[in-house]
What does this fold into?
Amino acid sequence: MRTRIATIVSLGLLVSGLSVAKDKKKAILPDYVLQAHTVAVIVDPDAPVSAVHPNDNKQAADSVEKAFMTWGRYQPVIDVRSADLVILIRKGRAPGPVIGGVGNGNDRPVIIQQPTDSQTRVGGQWGTPPPISQQQQQQQQQQTGPRPGMEAGSPEDVFEVYRGQTKYPLDGAPVWRYMGKDALNAPDVVAVEEFEKVVIQSEKAKN
It folds into this structure.
């Protein structure tokens, strides 16, 4: 089961994640990543809604999907369970007030995107998206409505790649992770650019 870890351990994982993402010479992705065709971009189910910037994660998901469309290697899809890869994202934030139990950006009823003049994507999500981890399923069953709170916050955006085509993709470990300040911001979307680099490097290493 995918669980949240204590703060000290979490900091250790952040350092580890950064070393994986930035040590690009050693990063070799498995074949299922290189052979994938579709990606589903989702907001971290554990991310509460910021009371100051309530749409930050939703906007980041839109920017990441547009970046994937511009790249052209992987096609963004709405159905998480049918996607070859699942991309989990979370915006970095300063400490501040948040609201839990109200959705976090994955409930997008209509999606209209046009990253280039020749590309247009229209999609939609009806109803509540299915849980993508056993922990999220339990949380949905226990939800009691909006809950105000405070978030410690981290200034770095998070971008994680999980294997798709499974019932609970987030119960596995991410195959690749990148973290950095404003790494999910348009127009560059640095996290997608870095993922593209490591995909190309992995293909060269296997040839």
Remarks:
- The beta strands are 38-43, 49-50, 75-76, 85-90, 96-100, 111-113, 121-123, 147-151, 157-163, 176-180.
